[in-house]
Amino acid sequence: MEPILALALVITGVAAGLASGMLGVGGCFIMVPVQLWALTSSGVEPTLAIRISFGTALAVALPTAVNAALGHHRRGAVVLRAALLLGIAGFVGAFVGGAVAAKAPGELLRIGFGLVVIAAALRMATAPDIKAAEGAKGGKAPRSNSFYLLLGLPLGFVSGLVGIGGGLIMVPILSMALGFGIHRAVGTSSAAIILTSSGGVLSYVYNGLAVPGLPPYSLGYVNLLQAALLAGASIPMARVGVRAAHRLPADRLRAAFTLVMVYIGLEMTGAFELLRSLV
């Protein structure tokens, strides 16, 4: 791998780690575009590059989420029951989603999910401030285990389908629809991503075994070299993100998360690429 590509991946890992710790997302939305550029620049076929980017991003999101979740847990910001149930169902959903992604057109999936992300960002931006209890009790948060399991399945499926840890959708649902405070929504999401990402990684490895054209150091659709460069930077930076998240007021954290979601949605729909072509 060329030094400039390796350096870009390390810098991307720093940004992904900060996003994971601060916002409760896996950081995949930052890693996937850079990985696509690195892989296609190295001569990997674009469709294959998309699947490798998704699988590798999930592989990096897993240890990064572990680090972030531990930091949030020490601050009492992880609702363990919700995280475990969401994660178990998300594991199954992500495995199925990864299997579908191995056969589906990546561009179509990216555009569809980008539209969903933009819609979620608009909802987050226009929602009234939530003063619900900081936890899974009080507010609108349900007590039913089956509810969390049913919610985790589609969240996990989307996660596996587009190579994102799941926090992108999980945080706004927990904070707005279920009445979690924003800090506990972020912490609980980080913990659930551990299991959700695991299901996606296993699926991308399994469905990518013996596929021709994979770059060196690949295990199925997971590239171990890129994963090492990204994870080496993202794992320690996740703790920095956790500290920053707990020092920021909830309204600022919510605003930051909304801006990130808008960026993700525009990137995934190809809006920035369209603008570049018009300039």
Structure write-up:
The protein is mostly helical. The chain has one domain. Helices cover 77% and strands 1% of the residues. It is built from 11 helices and 2 strands; from the N terminus they run ααααααααββααα. It has helices at residues 3-23, 28-41, 46-74, 80-101, 106-126, 145-162, 167-177, 182-208, 224-247, 250-269, 271-278; strands at residues 218-219, 222-223. A two-stranded antiparallel ribbon has the order 1-2. Strand 1 and strand 2 form a beta hairpin.
What's the layout of helices and strands?
Elements: H1 3-23, H2 28-41, H3 46-74, H4 80-101, H5 106-126, H6 145-162, H7 167-177, H8 182-208, E1 218-219, E2 222-223, H9 224-247, H10 250-269, H11 271-278
Antiparallel strand pairs: 1-2
List the keywords:
279 residues, mainly alpha, two-stranded antiparallel ribbon, 11 helices, 77% helix, 1% strand
In short:
By secondary structure, this protein is mainly α. The chain has one domain.
Radius of gyration: 17 Å
Strand order of the largest sheet: 1-2
Low-confidence stretches: 129-140
Number of self-contained structural domains = 1
The percent range for strand residues is under 5%
- Looking at the structure, what is the overall shape? globular
**Sequence of secondary-structure elements:** HHHHHHHHEEHHH
Q: Give the overall pLDDT as a whole number.
A: 83
Total of helices: 11
What's the N-to-C terminus distance? 31 Å
The class by helix and strand makeup works out as mainly alpha
Subcellular location: Cell membrane; Membrane
InterPro entries: TM_pro_TauE-like
Membrane topology: Multi-pass membrane protein
Main location: membrane
